[in-house]
Amino acid sequence: MTEIKQDRGNKIQERFRGDKGKINKPGNNENKEWIPITKLGRLVKNKKIISIEQIFYHSISIKEQEIIDYFLGSELKDEVIKIMPVQKQTRAGQRTRFKAFVIIGDFNGHVGLGVKSAKEAASAIRGAIIIAKLSIVPARKGFWGEYEGVAHTVPVKVTGKCGSIRVRCIPAPRGSGIVAGKIPKKLLTVAGYKDVFTSSKGHTRTIGNFAKATFEAISMTYNFSTPDLWAEQKLISNPLF
Question: What is the per-residue burial (b if ≥16 Cβ within 10 Å, else e) of 118-152?
Fold first, then answer.
């Protein structure tokens, strides 16, 4: 009887366990061929969409990190700006996890910020990199003064906020460099800016909020229509329809 009960218990455990050991974790399928699961992914793989700007133009949400790798993979660089332990009080005691903040960009007009918590620091970093890829936004560049050479600074004054922190990015003359704190300087450099003045207020020691406020300011650069965008432009059809 005991053997029958054990066999029955093992079968029930196997049924509820399912294929837990076969779950594809992030980073395990890097060498496997990409099989798209969204319509956008299929269009990208079939080369119906030829640039990432086409996706940004229509504000299409990106749900697969492989789309970013397809367009920007070799140019992207990532950097962990902070890893911090976070705790949650439970009945059994305190549960400690690790929270990672990662920035990613190509130093040429694309930047992303990812935040992820996990039981292990390595898992948190991997998850944050994936989130940063999915949150990549275009960073628009402009000029200070005359329109000469390559765009080097933010086109207009932009402000980002998160919590008590307010970060303002101001166009700067060529050769000024990035005048900013440690965290905003990293984000602005990764986005591809050469000369920017910044001013900030609030509790800027909170690195996570400081990074989020700077990222919001960078993403606001495409929210303003400056005179160089006033000319009539040919509309591009949406590839999803």
Answer: beebebbbbbbbbbbbbbbbbbbbbbbeeeeeebb
Question: pTM for this one?
Answer: 0.83
Q: Report how far residue 33's alpha carbon sits from residue 218's, in angstroms, rounded to the nearest whole number.
A: 34
Can you say how many angstroms the Cα of residue 171 is from the centroid of all Cα atoms in its chain? 24
pLDDT per residue over 81-98, tens digit each? 999 999 999 998 999 999
| pLDDT beyond 50 at 124 | yes
Cβ(162)–Cβ(147) below 8 Å: no
CA nearest neighbour of 101 among 76, 64, 129 = 129
Residue 27 pLDDT? 47
152 secondary structure, DSSP code: -
- Separation of alpha carbons 71 and 53, rounded Å: 10
Q: Order across the sheet with 77-90: list the strands.
A: 77-90, 93-105, 110-118, 137-138
Q: 218-227: b or e for each residue (b if 16 or more CB lie within 10 Å)?
A: bbbbeeeeee
